[in-house]
Amino acid sequence: MPKQTTLDAGIRPASRAAEPVNTRRPAKPAMERINWSGTTILVLCAVTVLLPLYVTLSMAFKTQGQAVDGNAFSLPAPFSLDGFVQAWTLTNFPVGAAMSMLVTAGTVVATIVLAAFASYAIVRNWERKLFRYSFFYLLGAMFIPFPVVALPQIQLTGRLGLDNPMGVILLATMFQLSFSVLLFTAFLRSIPLELEESARIDGATTWQTFWKLIFPLLAPMSATVGIFAFLYAWNDFMMPSLIISDPALQTLPVRQNLFQTQFSNNYHVSFASYLMAMAPAIVAYLFTQRWVMAGVTQGAVKG
Amino acid sequence: MNKGVSHMSTTTLTKAMKDSGARRKRRVEPIYYLFLLPSLVLFTLAITVPAIIGIFFSFTDSIGIGDWEFNGFTNYIAIFGDPAILQSYLFTFGFSTVTVIAVNVIAFLLAVGLTSRIRMKTALRTVFVIPMVVSGIIIAYVFNFLFSNSLPSAGAAAGIPWLETSLLANPDLAWIAIVTVTAWQAVPGALLIYIAGLVSIPGDVYEAAEIDGAGKLAQLLRITAPLMAGYMVINVILGFKGFLNAYDIIVGLTNGGPGTSTRSIAMTVIAGFNGGDYAYQMANATIFFIIAILISLVQLSVTRGRSTL
């Protein structure tokens, strides 16, 4: 029962946002009856989706005594913030959050800017071999999974002094680049050249044309590219865990392995920590879900 | 100064274009090189060079540091006789296949449900997409707790013997936990693609079928499923490609155990870095790379064919 209420309360405000994608047969609203059995089944499925998140939430607010009693589904009684207080210092949350934000912001900005730059140059000079081959070259990373090149990358970043969040930003951006260039170039090809020529006749340089005309036009694609880069950079464990050598500079997902080795019975602390690491992405999603859904669909169909 | 130069060349460019009508022999504005160069250089340093280094060392006996010598195909030959590596391939491909099937069946059914006339449509859709934005390793830790504490006690209460011990501690069943969590996280992506497909089917197709007397099930099997085949192909390939790289979720659930029963290819390769068989695992990675290329080529040929439709 409590799950049901959280579901309703949490989702309502945002439901308006996703409306436009939703109209499949708008012409005949009264013709068909509401499918109540289907609704019931889907609500039950939604509950199973929310179950692990509900457990995270309720465990995080329990006292240590209640957290170890074994019932994951009980509500916190009494309500306690002790888990958060301990998690905050144990994982050094402020630093971890700062590292995660740095890596995420860096990857998002670098991916959008570099991919937009390269895509613009490629599309406007498509008849030149260099630019055409560069396109296929950059696309090549879609064939290379990170595990394949991980070992040499660990060595190289170590040798170049990039075994830190900066190295992760660089590598994450490069792995996002193929897909992003693919999306940007497809979109740029649809922008008529005349639009640019009129700007140039008014005396704008290529640099100005890019920033004042092209980049704003690319905004919807930048949103898609940015969402993918955000989700990847914020949530990834593998790359930061392998590239960043100093534990003090680790991102939030990597810091959680603390609870696998030590403090493994302080469930209220570990779940409070998990919650703090997951919440930003979930909250960001609830506010931007329309773009996330559109972006994923677009990205998958094009990429 | 730079501005002046590019300004001049743009005006000559537009003039030249107007004069000749074609733009065959125009000069490339230097600024375009500046746009392209950062990506090319960084990409080469970050991906191409490591890939070449990796392939190079796969033909040596390097342990990652110090002296090394070429040893030809020794590593590659050894890999084909290495039970640990073969097991990781078997596990990864088996796990990926099962997960792809599970994800697509679940996502397709959910998509059909979510595009039918139901209540709370947008709220439900919002909920179903949430797993996609959650960190794989962290949700694996959460599930780890559920599998090792909650599920066994539920199994004991219900009197199901094989559930009374943790799935994660059972070498024969741990893969079920990994498939469950991976599917939990991968369903939303496939779901959104199926919804996009379902929405694009015009409603009058169903109306015509209804007039001809086709029931709901017949409509689903005879109209919806065939029209969704293209979307299914995309989902299967994208999913399979992703699952082959499985790492985060497995680390969070079993860390490859019990024993090495759930070790993925990625985990085996990475373990080589600490285990001292750098060159050997680079050969492994190279084989994995070739497999990834083959799958991508299949993907390209399939999606190319689709996009022309």
Describe the model:
Chain A has 303 residues and is mainly α. Chain A folds into two domains: 38-80, no CATH class; 91-299, MetI-like fold. Chain A is 73% helix and 0% strand. Chain A is globular and about 70 Å long. The two termini of chain A are 41 Å apart. Chain B is an all-alpha fold. Chain B has one domain (84-303): Orthogonal Bundle (MetI-like fold). Chain B is built from 14 helices and no strands. Chain B has helices at residues 2-20, 30-57, 74-80, 83-114, 121-129, 136-158, 161-164, 174-200, 203-211, 216-227, 229-244, 248-253, 265-275, 278-307. The longest helix of chain B has 32 residues, at 83-114. Classes of the chains: A mainly alpha (303), B mainly alpha (309). Chains A and B meet through helix 1, helix 2, helix 5, helix 6 and helix 7 of A and helix 1, helix 2, helix 4, helix 5 and helix 6 of B.
Top keywords for this entry?
heterodimer; A: 303 residues; mainly alpha; MetI-like fold; 2 domains; 15 helices; globular; disordered N terminus; B: 309 residues; 14 helices; 75% helix; 0% strand
How large is the count of helical segments of chain A?
Answer: 15
Number of domains of chain A: 2
Write down how many β-strands of chain B occur, each being a DSSP E stretch of 2 or more residues. 0
Number of structural units classed as domains of chain B: 1
SS summary, helix count of chain B: 14
> What order do the helices and strands of chain B follow?
HHHHHHHHHHHHHH
N- to C-terminal separation of chain B? Answer: 49 Å
Shape of chain A: globular
Looking at CATH, the homologous superfamily of chain B is: MetI-like
CATH H-level homologous superfamily name of the largest domain in chain A? MetI-like
- CATH fold assignment of chain B: MetI-like fold
Mean pLDDT of chain B: 86
Biggest sheet architecture of chain A: none
Largest interface: A-B, 115 and 102 residues
By CATH, the architecture of chain B is named Orthogonal Bundle
Q: According to CATH, what is the class of the largest domain in chain A?
A: Mainly Alpha
